[in-house]
Amino acid sequence: MTESNGTPRGAGGGSMPDWEKRFRAPRVSLPDWAEDAPDRSLFVSNATGTYELYAWDRATGEQRRATDRPNGTTDGVLSPDGEWIWWFSDKDGDEFGVWLRQPFAGGDDVPAVDGLEASYPAGLAIGRDGSTAVVGRSTDEDGTTIHVVRGGGAPQEIYRHRESAGVGDLSHDGTLIAIEHTEHGDAMHSALRVVRPDGTTVAELDDTKGGSQELGLEVLGFAPVDGDTRLLVGHQRRGRWEPMVWDVASGEETDLALDLPGDVSAEWYPDGSALLVAHSFEARSDLWRYEFGSGTLTRVETPPGTVSGATARPDGSVEYLWSSAAEPSVVRSTSGGVVLDPPGLRAPVSVPVEDVWVEGPGGRIHALVQKPAGATGPLPTVFEVHGGPTWHDSDSFAAGPAAWVDHGYAVVRVNYRGSTGYGREWTDALKHRVGLIELEDVSAVREWAVSSGLADPDRLVLAGGSWGGYLTLLGVGTQPDVWAVGLAAVPVADYVTAYHDEMEALKALDRTLFGGTPEEVPNRFTASSPLTYVDEVKAPVYISAGVNDPRCPIRQIDNYVDRLVARGATHEVYRYDAGHGSLVVEERIKQVRLELDFAARHLS
User: Fold this and answer.
1) Per-residue pLDDT tens over the stretch 507-518
2) Which of 399, 400, 433, 402 is CA-nearest to residue 418?
């Protein structure tokens, strides 16, 4: 066993390599802006080496760092009047804390809501007056509670349930509150309830009732007009995510039936006359404008690649965060030019991604492949498995895969069953045989990579973080003769212990995935737990873990590592003082360097 100290061989001086520049280069998020003060914005940047919140006065051009904590801050909301920045204060990434607020122009942080103890966040909506808020909370003891706070008064509880739920939105005039809930026990498919600020119910929408299909709903936002009772809702009634308009007062549902393949989401234009439509299909995305009056759908021009976020401004322009696998992310506007251009080091470009489709046991599997320019196989190949599991890899810029390519590896990313963007059935397919189904798809793509001549079968690396880290440990245990190295970041390693230690919302998700608790369906948890197969592991394994992680808690990782130690298995463990990943640039670089070094030593 090796407990890494973060100083791998070959980490000394010399000029900075491109892969490290990509991590160090300043990045910014898509700016959020105040509804009634659109010149005031809030964004996230790593300009100081740690991801923090920044206030931006567009009228003066002044930018001010609003938060400054050793382990970073990314969860913040700007009040609609632009006067206050709300931000969530946890302890070193444990995600358990309280909301604080500070004046937009700067000043002391003060508790945003007196009378609410620390919890996991479950949504937040702030009224246009800046002093009314709807606050969602989650704790192991209480489940989910939702509270209304007015003018600094005592919070009033309007909702409570053991199952997971969250604040969806507050109407423009503050008279209606939309709640997403899973009272039916299916944490993957929410139902909706609209209530008044006193908690009385106005309307319900539940697509999980009746029929054999499990369909979800999501809140996309109330119309931005006083007295307008239209709520934009995402639904899955045709086997994929699409928007519709639900008038919560009359009950009328308006199906937009947009003729676009793949998943579709939307948000309102500021005057409520149109929608900004975000369309995701086969690992790429684009934008459209939908006019309510004419029903026309017009493309909003963006470069080929991935739009990771977009917002319509009061002047009708659209700001969006764009990147591709080769080109680093940038915030652009349809009015022309770059919206935010942080000074300093520029991230070097990488190589484009190639699409591969492979026939698998559950249907065609989409994989994304990158390899060094001009390289021919067979190459050492990293199968970088995404987290989620309800997420997907896309044609977007990622410094991690680019680092592997710089070091001579091919990188293959698989959008396995469970991934989003390929229809509801693909996303929902991994119930009960959790982990094992995803690995079947990874195996099918691995076989293609070897047979096509891309991948060297003796130098295959299975890697990933979070759910990808879980699949890595499960893969090296259930497929011990295939993988040469396993690299697992913040993984689930012992699923039973993870269930008992994780945050309440994730317990609800696991009950949905497995069909019950570890006590109710023990065989399913056993079959899907990496700990079950730890004695079969042959590949050297590297594990990194945040000691404050509430999603993949440290105790269950220690249980797995103890078994590796007992066997004398080759492995290294790196523990760091953060939660489910780090917001500190130097820490991220250190972890990538450790993984690169571990793989190099064990593949040589």
Assistant:
1) 999 999 999 999
2) 433
